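cron nightly-structures :: item 1 of 1
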Amino acid sequence: MMYIFPRQFGLHNVFTSVVDRQQTTQKFQDYTLREDEIAKKFPKKDKDDQPIKHIPKRLRGGPKQLVQRLQILHGRCSYASMLQHYCPIAEQVVVEEETSDSSTNKPPLPQLAPQTSKRTKGRSMSQPAQSSVPPLQYNLLTELATPLANVSAFCQAILSRIIPNDFWGEGTLQAQNKKTFLKMVNHFVHLRRFESMCLHDVVQGMKASWQRPYFQPTPDI
Protein backbone atom coordinates (compact mmCIF):
# COMPACT_ATOMS: atom_id res chain seq x y z
CA MET A 1 0.00 0.00 0.00
CA MET A 2 2.95 2.33 0.55
CA TYR A 3 3.77 2.23 -3.15
CA ILE A 4 0.20 3.20 -4.07
CA PHE A 5 -0.45 5.74 -1.28
CA PRO A 6 3.00 7.11 -0.33
CA ARG A 7 1.66 10.47 0.80
CA GLN A 8 -0.67 8.86 3.35
CA PHE A 9 2.31 7.08 4.93
CA GLY A 10 4.49 10.19 4.98
CA LEU A 11 6.82 8.96 2.24
CA HIS A 12 8.34 10.93 -0.61
CA ASN A 13 5.71 11.69 -3.25
CA VAL A 14 5.13 13.83 -6.33
CA PHE A 15 2.57 16.07 -4.62
CA THR A 16 4.27 17.55 -1.55
CA SER A 17 7.93 16.47 -1.73
CA VAL A 18 10.89 18.21 -3.35
CA VAL A 19 12.95 16.28 -5.89
CA ASP A 20 16.53 15.62 -4.75
CA ARG A 21 18.70 16.72 -7.68
CA GLN A 22 21.63 14.73 -6.30
CA GLN A 23 19.71 11.52 -6.97
CA THR A 24 18.15 12.27 -10.35
CA THR A 25 18.08 14.84 -13.12
CA GLN A 26 14.56 13.87 -14.16
CA LYS A 27 11.44 15.84 -13.34
CA PHE A 28 10.41 13.28 -10.72
CA GLN A 29 12.32 10.76 -8.65
CA ASP A 30 12.36 7.07 -9.43
CA TYR A 31 9.94 5.26 -7.12
CA THR A 32 10.56 1.76 -8.46
CA LEU A 33 12.29 0.60 -5.26
CA ARG A 34 11.43 2.22 -1.94
CA GLU A 35 12.46 -0.45 0.56
CA ASP A 36 15.33 1.62 2.02
CA GLU A 37 13.05 4.62 2.47
CA ILE A 38 10.37 2.45 4.10
CA ALA A 39 12.93 0.86 6.45
CA LYS A 40 14.08 4.31 7.61
CA LYS A 41 10.50 5.49 8.07
CA PHE A 42 9.44 2.41 10.05
CA PRO A 43 12.51 1.15 11.97
CA LYS A 44 10.53 -0.80 14.60
CA LYS A 45 10.15 -4.53 13.96
CA ASP A 46 7.86 -7.24 15.29
CA LYS A 47 8.68 -10.71 16.62
CA ASP A 48 9.17 -12.05 13.07
CA ASP A 49 11.73 -9.31 12.34
CA GLN A 50 9.25 -7.58 10.03
CA PRO A 51 8.81 -3.78 10.11
CA ILE A 52 5.72 -2.58 11.95
CA LYS A 53 3.67 -0.56 9.49
CA HIS A 54 0.67 1.27 10.87
CA ILE A 55 -2.00 1.74 8.21
CA PRO A 56 -3.49 5.25 8.26
CA LYS A 57 -7.11 5.43 9.34
CA ARG A 58 -8.16 6.73 5.94
CA LEU A 59 -6.85 3.61 4.19
CA ARG A 60 -8.35 1.01 6.50
CA GLY A 61 -11.28 -1.09 5.39
CA GLY A 62 -12.22 -0.59 1.73
CA PRO A 63 -8.87 0.62 0.31
CA LYS A 64 -6.94 -2.12 2.09
CA GLN A 65 -9.31 -4.80 0.79
CA LEU A 66 -8.99 -3.46 -2.76
CA VAL A 67 -5.20 -3.61 -2.62
CA GLN A 68 -5.31 -7.14 -1.22
CA ARG A 69 -7.69 -8.13 -4.01
CA LEU A 70 -5.31 -6.65 -6.58
CA GLN A 71 -2.43 -8.70 -5.14
CA ILE A 72 -4.52 -11.88 -5.34
CA LEU A 73 -5.51 -11.24 -8.95
CA HIS A 74 -1.88 -10.48 -9.81
CA GLY A 75 -0.80 -13.83 -8.35
CA ARG A 76 -3.46 -15.70 -10.32
CA CYS A 77 -2.81 -14.00 -13.65
CA SER A 78 -0.92 -16.10 -16.19
CA TYR A 79 1.12 -13.41 -17.91
CA ALA A 80 3.05 -15.80 -20.16
CA SER A 81 -0.08 -17.50 -21.48
CA MET A 82 -1.78 -14.19 -22.18
CA LEU A 83 1.33 -12.91 -23.92
CA GLN A 84 1.36 -15.93 -26.21
CA HIS A 85 -2.36 -15.43 -26.88
CA TYR A 86 -2.33 -11.72 -27.71
CA CYS A 87 1.20 -11.44 -29.13
CA PRO A 88 1.92 -14.85 -30.70
CA ILE A 89 5.22 -15.62 -32.39
CA ALA A 90 5.57 -18.33 -34.99
CA GLU A 91 7.18 -21.47 -33.61
CA GLN A 92 9.88 -21.36 -36.23
CA VAL A 93 10.97 -18.42 -38.37
CA VAL A 94 12.50 -19.66 -41.59
CA VAL A 95 16.06 -18.53 -42.06
CA GLU A 96 17.41 -17.94 -45.52
CA GLU A 97 20.03 -20.41 -46.67
CA GLU A 98 23.56 -19.32 -46.13
CA THR A 99 25.69 -18.37 -49.07
CA SER A 100 29.42 -18.21 -49.28
CA ASP A 101 29.48 -14.50 -48.44
CA SER A 102 26.61 -14.53 -45.92
CA SER A 103 27.06 -13.36 -42.36
CA THR A 104 26.97 -15.60 -39.31
CA ASN A 105 23.65 -16.83 -37.92
CA LYS A 106 21.81 -14.70 -35.41
CA PRO A 107 21.63 -16.05 -31.84
CA PRO A 108 18.45 -17.95 -30.99
CA LEU A 109 15.72 -16.11 -29.12
CA PRO A 110 14.77 -17.70 -25.78
CA GLN A 111 11.25 -19.06 -25.47
CA LEU A 112 8.76 -18.18 -22.76
CA ALA A 113 8.02 -21.33 -20.83
CA PRO A 114 4.31 -22.07 -20.26
CA GLN A 115 3.07 -22.08 -16.70
CA THR A 116 1.57 -25.02 -14.88
CA SER A 117 -0.63 -24.79 -11.85
CA LYS A 118 0.48 -26.44 -8.62
CA ARG A 119 -1.56 -26.40 -5.44
CA THR A 120 0.29 -25.64 -2.24
CA LYS A 121 -1.59 -25.44 1.06
CA GLY A 122 -4.90 -24.77 -0.66
CA ARG A 123 -3.56 -22.03 -2.92
CA SER A 124 -2.86 -22.39 -6.60
CA MET A 125 0.73 -21.48 -7.47
CA SER A 126 1.99 -21.00 -11.02
CA GLN A 127 5.36 -22.50 -11.86
CA PRO A 128 7.19 -22.50 -15.19
CA ALA A 129 7.23 -25.82 -16.99
CA GLN A 130 9.88 -27.08 -19.34
CA SER A 131 9.04 -26.49 -22.98
CA SER A 132 9.94 -28.83 -25.82
CA VAL A 133 9.59 -26.07 -28.43
CA PRO A 134 12.96 -25.40 -30.08
CA PRO A 135 14.40 -21.88 -29.81
CA LEU A 136 13.40 -19.41 -32.47
CA GLN A 137 15.73 -18.66 -35.32
CA TYR A 138 15.43 -15.47 -37.28
CA ASN A 139 17.14 -13.60 -40.06
CA LEU A 140 16.07 -10.07 -39.12
CA LEU A 141 14.92 -8.78 -35.76
CA THR A 142 11.98 -7.08 -37.46
CA GLU A 143 10.56 -10.51 -38.27
CA LEU A 144 9.69 -10.83 -34.57
CA ALA A 145 7.86 -7.51 -34.42
CA THR A 146 4.34 -7.47 -32.97
CA PRO A 147 1.63 -5.12 -34.29
CA LEU A 148 0.69 -2.23 -32.02
CA ALA A 149 -2.91 -3.42 -31.91
CA ASN A 150 -1.80 -6.73 -30.38
CA VAL A 151 0.39 -4.98 -27.80
CA SER A 152 -2.47 -2.67 -26.86
CA ALA A 153 -4.89 -5.58 -26.54
CA PHE A 154 -2.42 -7.44 -24.30
CA CYS A 155 -1.91 -4.45 -21.99
CA GLN A 156 -5.63 -3.77 -21.72
CA ALA A 157 -6.40 -7.43 -21.02
CA ILE A 158 -3.78 -7.61 -18.26
CA LEU A 159 -4.96 -4.41 -16.58
CA SER A 160 -8.60 -5.46 -16.85
CA ARG A 161 -7.80 -8.78 -15.20
CA ILE A 162 -5.62 -7.66 -12.28
CA ILE A 163 -7.30 -4.36 -11.31
CA PRO A 164 -10.52 -4.93 -9.33
CA ASN A 165 -13.58 -3.24 -10.79
CA ASP A 166 -14.22 -1.39 -7.53
CA PHE A 167 -11.05 0.60 -8.20
CA TRP A 168 -12.95 2.46 -10.92
CA GLY A 169 -15.86 3.58 -8.74
CA GLU A 170 -19.47 2.54 -8.41
CA GLY A 171 -22.48 2.30 -10.71
CA THR A 172 -22.24 4.02 -14.07
CA LEU A 173 -18.97 5.74 -13.12
CA GLN A 174 -17.25 2.37 -12.86
CA ALA A 175 -17.73 1.42 -16.51
CA GLN A 176 -17.03 4.98 -17.70
CA ASN A 177 -13.77 5.35 -15.76
CA LYS A 178 -12.51 1.93 -16.79
CA LYS A 179 -13.30 2.59 -20.44
CA THR A 180 -11.57 5.98 -20.29
CA PHE A 181 -8.45 4.51 -18.69
CA LEU A 182 -8.16 1.64 -21.17
CA LYS A 183 -8.62 4.11 -24.01
CA MET A 184 -5.63 6.08 -22.73
CA VAL A 185 -3.61 2.85 -22.48
CA ASN A 186 -4.27 2.28 -26.17
CA HIS A 187 -3.27 5.89 -26.87
CA PHE A 188 -0.03 5.47 -24.89
CA VAL A 189 0.95 2.33 -26.82
CA HIS A 190 0.43 4.14 -30.13
CA LEU A 191 2.55 7.16 -29.18
CA ARG A 192 5.41 7.86 -31.55
CA ARG A 193 9.03 8.48 -30.66
CA PHE A 194 8.91 12.13 -29.58
CA GLU A 195 5.31 12.16 -28.36
CA SER A 196 4.45 12.06 -24.67
CA MET A 197 1.51 12.17 -22.32
CA CYS A 198 1.05 13.44 -18.78
CA LEU A 199 -1.06 12.43 -15.80
CA HIS A 200 -3.63 15.06 -16.73
CA ASP A 201 -4.20 13.30 -20.06
CA VAL A 202 -4.71 9.95 -18.30
CA VAL A 203 -7.35 11.14 -15.82
CA GLN A 204 -9.10 13.49 -18.24
CA GLY A 205 -12.74 12.39 -18.38
CA MET A 206 -12.57 10.24 -15.24
CA LYS A 207 -14.83 11.03 -12.29
CA ALA A 208 -14.63 10.18 -8.58
CA SER A 209 -17.42 9.00 -6.32
CA TRP A 210 -16.97 11.36 -3.38
CA GLN A 211 -19.64 9.56 -1.35
CA ARG A 212 -17.14 6.83 -0.49
CA PRO A 213 -16.04 7.04 3.16
CA TYR A 214 -12.30 6.96 2.43
CA PHE A 215 -12.61 10.08 0.25
CA GLN A 216 -13.90 12.09 3.19
CA PRO A 217 -11.32 14.28 4.98
CA THR A 218 -9.82 12.75 8.10
CA PRO A 219 -10.56 14.83 11.23
CA ASP A 220 -7.56 16.17 13.10
CA ILE A 221 -6.91 14.44 16.42
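cron nightly-structures :: done
The first strand starts at residue 115 and ends at 120.
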